[in-house]
C-alpha cells in the first residue's frame, strides 16, 4: 500500500473542517491554553514558504498541548485594513474591500492546505464592521478617560470634572498637556461648555492636538516611525517629510513606567525587552528653565546631568521648536528658514541614527545662564528632536560627545568643569568618576552630590526641579487614508463629540476616489454621505449639515495598529454582539499563553498592544495587566536567489554561465571574444578580452536543484522577453549554471517559493517537517528545495513501518527491549524539544527512531501506535491516517501524549567487544552488574577466547565494566 500524501491530506482536512475538530470551548473543565500567531495582513501575493514558519511552530505546540489535556484556543484572522489594499485601489479603481476579500480567500486556501489546527469558527477581520465597532468603542472609552497619577491608572473623565467642580485643577495630578492654566472651582463652573471641553481635551487619553508628523506626500498620509526606512516610506519607498498637522493622538506616555515595569513579569527574549526599554527611554534628571534675553518666552530643557550646568556654553533647539521663528533675528532668518526646510525632508529615525553629520544654524538669540547670568547663544540643530523631551538641550561640550563635535565644528567655546581631566581631544562622559570644578557652589562635589545641590539651587530660583523623563511620545492616531476604521466622531464648533456607543458601528462610506481631495482633505472628504444626524442617530448626506442637528464627521481614519491592538480578546468571544468579549470569556482565557511572530514588531505593535491592554485593565474590562505571557520571535526563512550574468558586445546581448565569471579590479566579468569560424562568441583566457557583466535576478522556478537554468523557459518567460534572442554561453556539458546568493525572500528578487507547489509535489506534512528541520526556530535560515527530498523520503520510510504492498503489517506481538528503548528515548526527546521550542532537533529524533525501528523490523502496535501520536503535532495528516488504519475511532489530535517510562532506558546488559592485543575478535552480551573479576572468569572460559589464545595464558587482562575487554598476550 503506497503512501499518497495528496489523497490523505485532502481527506483529513475535509474531516477536520466538517467535524470542527479544533473548535475551542469557553467553558471547558480542562485547563486553558491560548496559542496566538501575530495577525497576518492578507497581501495579494499570497504566502511564500517563509510565511508559514511561525504558524507551523505554533501549530505544533497547540497540538501538543491538546495531547497533554489542555483546552487549546488557536485562532486565526486577518489584519485586513491597511495601505497596500488602498494603494491597489488607487491604481486599479477596485474597492479595497473587494481585493481584501480576494486576498483573504487566497490566504485561507493556502493555510488550509498546510493543515493548521486553527479554530476557524472564531475568525476575525479588522475591516468587518462587526469587528471595528468594538475598535470604535475602545476609542470612545479612551476619549472618556484621563490618567490619574495618584491612583496610577486611567479613570473616567467624570471623576476629573467632579474634582474641577469642587476644587478646580490645582490639586489634580494628571498626565496632561504641558502648560496647563490653573483655575478655581468657581472659574470652572463659570466656563462655557465649549471652554470646559477645550480644557478636558488637555487631559483626555485620546485628544486632538497640532503635532509634528511624518508626512508622505506620495501616499497622502501620515506614517508612524516604524513605517519609515532610511527616510522613505516602507511601502513604496516614497520621500517623507516632517510637517505640523492637527491629529488625534493617544497618551501612551501615561503608561511609560508601567510598560517598563511590566517587562519584568513576562517571558520574552531579552533582546525584545531591551528594544522596548530603549523605545520607552527612561531617564532621571532635572527640568531647567532658561530665560531668553530680550524676549518674554523661556526655554525649557530636560537634562540628565544638572551637575554640569556651569559647563553650558550654548543651547540647541530642534528646528521645529515653536520658539525658533519668534527668537530668530532678521540677520539669521534666511539661513534658519533654509535649514528648517532641509530638515523637514529627513525622518526622525534618520536624524537619530546619523551621528556623523554635524549641521546647525545660529538663531542670533541668546539665553541667560540661570546662575552666572552670562549670555548663551541659541542654535538650531537636527540632532535635537521636537518630540523628545522639550525639543531643546543645554549643550555641555566638555561632557557630551555630540555637543563637543558641534562646538568644535562651529568654533563655540568649550568650558572644562571636570577636575583633573583633559578634554583637548574628546569630551569626558564618565559621570561616576566626576569631580566638579570651576562651578561655584558645586566645586569639589561628585556627580550625585552635585546633581542634588544643583536641583535644590534651581528650585530656589524657580528655574528648575528634579524630573523623570521618557523618550516614549504620545502616539499619533490619525491617518489620511480611506481603508481604515472610521472615527466615531463628529464636530460641533470644531470640537470633537463622540457618537453614542449604542449607535456603533459607524460604517466606512463609499467614495468615488481613494486619493485625498483637491483641497488636501483626506479621502473621506470625497464622501457625499458623511454627516451625523444627532436627532435620528444616523449617517446622512453632507447636504443636510446645518450645524444644529446635523454635523460633519471626522475625515481621518484610524491607523493600522488600531485593530491589532486588542484582537486577541475578540478571539475569546468572537460572535458577541453585546460586548467585545463577555466577562466570563475574558476571565476564562485571561491572556495569551504563547505568542509567536516576527521581531519587526518589537516596538510598535507590541507596545501599543500592551498599552491598550493596560488601559482596558484599568477600566475593568481586561482581566490581566499584560496581554502576552510568552513571546517567541521566529527567524526569517531566506530565499536562495538565482542570478544570470548579462553582458553586451556591440548590439548583441549575451549571458555567461557562472563558471566563466572572473573578477578583475573588483568587477565581475568574463574573458570573451568572437570566433568567426563558429560565428559566435566564445570564452577565452586572454585578459585583454575582459568584459564586465551585470548580475540579473532569475526566477528560481526556472532553475533546477543542480543550479541549471532552463534556457528555453527563461527566454519565453514574460519577465525576460527582452532577452528572447540572446546567446547563452553554457559550460562544457551544455548547461547554463546560475549564481546563487542568500537574500530575503521577496517577489522583487524572484526567489519566492510557493508552498502550494511544495504541498502538491511532496505533501503538506513534508513541508511542515522540512521548515522545522531547517534550523532553530528563532534563527534566520536559507531555504533550499533540494533538501526537501530527504524529509519526503523519511515519511515514506515511516509509512513502511505500518504497511507493505499488500496492506497493514502491524501486529499485536510483544515488542523487543530495543524497540521499547527507541520509543521511550523518542518520547523523552520530543517532549523536551517541544517544551523548549527546539523543533528542528525533534525532526532529527524522528528520523533516528524510524531508522532504528526499520532496522529492527519492528511492526508491533505497542510501539507504532504511540509513535503515530508523537509525530502527529508535526505531520498531522499521516498521523491521522495511521491512527485510523490501526483501528482507532475519531481524530488522533485529542489522544493523550505517550508517557515516558525511564525503565526502558536502563541498560540491564551490555554487548562488549572482546579485543586481543587491541583488535576486536568477537562480541559477547553480559549483565551490566558483573564485576571485573566475574567478567574475566567468563571471558577466559569462552571457547572463542581459548581458540584465540591457542593454549597460551594472557600476560594481562584489561577490563573496564560497561566499556572494555582487552586481552594482551
Automatic annotation (TrEMBL):
ATP binds at residue 747. Residues 739-770 form the Aminoacyl-tRNA synthetase class Ia domain. The lineage of its organism: Bacteria, Pseudomonadati, Bacteroidota, Flavobacteriia, Flavobacteriales. It holds the Pfam family tRNA-synt_1g. This is Leucine--tRNA ligase. GO terms for cellular component: cytosol. It comes from Flavobacterium supellecticarium. The gene is leuS. Transmembrane segments: none annotated. It catalyses: tRNA(Leu) + L-leucine + ATP = L-leucyl-tRNA(Leu) + AMP + diphosphate. A motif ('KMSKS' region) lies at residues 744-748.
Amino acid at each position: 500500500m503506497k503512501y499518497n500524501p495528496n489523497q490523505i491530506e485532502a481527506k483529513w482536512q475535509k474531516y477536520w473542517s466538517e467535524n470542527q475538530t479544533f473548535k475551542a470551548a469557553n467553558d471547558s473543565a480542562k485547563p486553558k491554553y491560548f496559542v496566538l500567531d501575530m495577525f497576518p495582513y492578507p497581501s495579494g501575493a499570497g504566502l511564500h514558504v517563509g510565511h508559514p514558519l511561525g504558524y507551523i511552530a505554533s501549530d505544533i505546540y497547540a497540538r501538543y498541548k491538546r495531547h497533554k489535556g489542555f483546552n487549546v484556543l488557536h485562532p486565526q484572522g486577518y489584519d485586513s485594513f491597511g495601505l497596500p489594499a488602498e494603494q491597489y485601489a488607487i491604481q486599479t479603481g477596485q474597492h479595497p474591500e473587494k481585493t481584501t476579500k480576494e486576498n483573504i480567500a487566497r490566504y485561507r486556501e493556502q493555510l488550509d492546505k498546510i493543515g493548521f489546527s486553527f479554530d476557524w469558527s472564531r475568525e476575525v477581520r479588522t475591516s468587518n464592521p462587526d469587528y471595528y465597532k468594538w475598535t470604535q468603542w475602545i476609542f470612545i472609552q479612551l476619549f472618556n478617560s484621563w490618567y490619574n497619577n495618584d491612583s496610577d491608572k486611567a479613570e473616567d473623565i467624570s471623576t476629573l470634572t467632579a474634582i474641577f467642580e469642587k476644587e478646580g485643577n490645582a490639586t489634580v495630578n494628571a498626565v496632561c498637556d504641558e502648560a496647563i492654566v490653573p483655575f478655581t472651582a468657581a472659574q470652572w463652573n463659570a466656563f462655557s461648555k465649549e471652554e470646559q471641553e477645550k480644557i478636558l481635551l488637555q487631559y483626555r487619553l485620546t485628544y486632538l492636538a497640532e503635532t509634528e508628523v511624518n508626512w508622505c506626500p506620495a501616499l497622502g498620509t501620515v506614517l508612524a516611525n516604524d513605517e519609515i526606512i532610511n527616510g522613505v516610506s516602507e511601502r513604496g519607498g516614497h520621500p517623507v517629510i516632517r510637517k505640523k498637522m492637527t491629529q488625534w493622538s493617544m497618551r501612551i506616555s501615561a503608561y511609560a513606567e508601567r510598560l517598563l515595569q511590566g517587562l519584568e513579569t513576562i517571558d520574552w527574549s531579552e533582546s525584545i525587552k531591551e528594544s522596548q526599554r530603549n523605545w520607552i527611554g527612561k531617564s532621571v534628571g532635572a527640568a531647567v528653565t532658561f530665560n531668553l534675553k530680550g524676549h518674554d518666552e523661556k526655554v525649557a530643557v530636560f537634562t540628565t546631568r544638572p551637575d554640569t550646568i556651569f559647563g553650558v556654553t550654548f543651547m540647541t533647539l530642534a528646528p521645529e521648536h515653536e520658539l525658533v521663528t519668534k527668537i530668530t533675528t532678521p540677520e539669521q532668518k534666511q539661513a534658519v528658514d533654509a535649514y528648517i526646510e532641509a530638515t523637514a525632508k529627513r525622518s526622525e529615525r534618520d536624524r537619530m541614527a546619523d551621528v556623523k553629520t554635524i549641521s546647525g544654524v545660529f538663531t542670533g538669540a541668546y539665553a541667560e545662564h540661570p546662575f552666572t547670568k552670562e549670555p548663551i547663544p541659541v542654535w538650531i540643530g537636527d540632532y535635537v528632536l521636537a518630540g523628545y523631551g522639550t525639543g531643546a538641550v543645554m549643550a555641555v561640550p566638555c561632557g557630551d560627545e555630540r555637543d563637543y563635535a558641534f562646538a568644535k565644528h562651529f568654533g563655540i567655546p568649550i568650558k572644562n568643569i571636570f577636575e583633573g581631566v583633559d578634554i583637548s581631544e574628546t569630551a569626558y562622559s564618565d559621570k561616576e568618576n566626576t569631580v566638579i570644578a570651576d562651578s561655584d557652589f558645586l566645586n569639589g562635589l561628585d556627580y550625585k552630590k552635585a546633581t542634588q545641590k544643583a536641583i535644590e539651587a534651581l528650585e530656589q530660583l524657580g528655574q528648575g526641579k528634579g524630573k523623570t523623563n521618557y523618550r516614549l511620545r504620545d502616539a499619533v492616531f490619525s491617518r489620511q487614508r480611506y481603508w481604515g476604521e472610521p472615527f466615531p466622531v463628529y464636530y460641533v464648533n470644531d470640537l470633537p463629540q463622540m457618537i453614542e456607543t449604542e449607535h456603533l458601528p459607524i460604517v466606512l462610506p463609499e467614495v468615488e476616489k481613494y486619493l485625498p481631495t483637491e483641497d488636501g482633505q483626506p479621502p473621506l472628504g470625497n464622501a457625499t454621505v458623511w454627516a451625523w444626524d444627532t436627532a435620528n442617530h444616523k449617517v446622512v448626506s453632507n447636504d443636510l449639515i446645518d450645524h444644529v442637528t446635523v454635523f460633519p464627521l471626522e475625515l481621518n481614519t484610524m491607523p493600522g495598529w488600531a485593530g491589532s491592538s486588542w484582537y486577541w480578546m475578540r478571539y475569546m468571544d468572537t460572535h458577541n454582539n453585546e460586548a467585545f468579549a463577555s466577562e466570563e470569556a475574558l476571565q476564562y482565557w485571561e491572556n495569551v499563553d504563547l505568542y509567536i511572530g516576527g521581531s519587526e514588531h518589537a516596538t510598535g505593535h507590541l507596545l501599543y498592544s500592551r498599552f491598550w491592554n493596560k488601559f482596558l485593565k484599568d477600566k475593568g474590562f481586561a482581566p490581566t495587566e499584560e496581554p502576552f505571557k510568552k513571546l517567541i520571535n521566529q527567524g526569517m526563512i531566506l530565499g536562495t536567489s538565482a542570478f544570470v550574468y548579462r553582458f553586451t558586445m556591440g548590439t548583441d546581448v549575451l549571458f555567461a554561465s557562472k563558471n566563466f565569471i572572473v573578477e578583475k579590479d573588483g568587477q565581475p566579468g568574463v574573458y570573451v571574444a568572437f570566433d568567426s569560424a563558429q560565428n559566435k562568441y566564445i570564452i577565452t583566457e586572454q585578459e585583454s578580452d575582459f568584459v564586465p557583466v551585470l548580475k540579473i535576478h532569475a526566477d528560481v522556478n526556472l532553475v533546477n536543484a543542480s543550479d541549471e537554468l532552463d534556457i528555453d523557459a527563461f527566454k519565453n518567460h514574460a519577465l525576460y522577453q527582452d532577452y528572447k534572442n540572446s546567446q547563452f554561453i553554457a559550460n562544457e556539458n551544455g548547461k547554463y549554471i546560475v549564481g546563487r546568493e542568500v537574500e530575503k525572500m521577496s517577489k522583487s528578487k524572484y526567489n519566492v517559493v510557493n508552498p502550494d507547489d511544495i504541498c502538491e509535489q511532496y505533501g503538506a506534512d513534508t513541508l511542515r517537517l522540512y521548515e522545522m528541520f531547517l534550523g532553530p526556530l528563532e534563527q534566520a535560515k536559507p531555504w533550499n528545495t533540494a533538501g526537501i527530498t530527504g524529509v519526503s523520503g523519511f515519511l515514506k520510510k515511516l509509512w513502511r513501518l505500518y504497511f507493505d504492498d499488500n496492506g497493514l503489517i502491524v501486529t499485536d506481538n510483544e515488542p523487543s527491549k530495543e524497540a521499547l528503548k527507541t520509543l521511550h528515548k523518542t518520547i523523552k526527546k520530543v517532549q523536551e524539544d517541544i517544551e523548549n521550542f527546539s523543533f528542528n532537533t525533534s525532526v532529527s529524533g524522528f528520523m533516528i527512531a524510524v531508522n532504528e525501528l526499520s532496522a529492527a523490523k519492528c511492526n508491533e502496535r505497542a510501539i507504532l501506535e504511540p509513535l503515530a501520536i508523537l509525530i502527529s503535532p508535526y505531520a498531522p495528516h499521516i498521523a491521522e491516517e495511521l491512527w485510523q488504519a490501526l483501528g482507532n475511532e475519531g481524530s488522533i489530535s485529542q489522544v493523550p501524549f505517550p508517557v515516558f517510562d525511564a525503565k526502558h532506558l536502563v541498560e540491564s546488559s551490555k554487548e562488549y567487544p572482546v579485543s586481543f592485543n587491541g583488535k576486536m575478535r568477537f562480541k559477547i552480551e553480559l549483565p551490566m552488574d558483573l564485576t571485573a573479576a566475574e567478567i574475566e572468569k567468563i571471558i577466559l572460559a569462552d571457547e572463542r577466547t581459548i581458540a584465540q589464545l591457542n593454549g597460551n595464558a594472557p600476560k594481562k587482562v584489561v577490563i573496564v565494566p560497561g566499556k572494555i575487554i582487552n586481552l594482551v598476550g
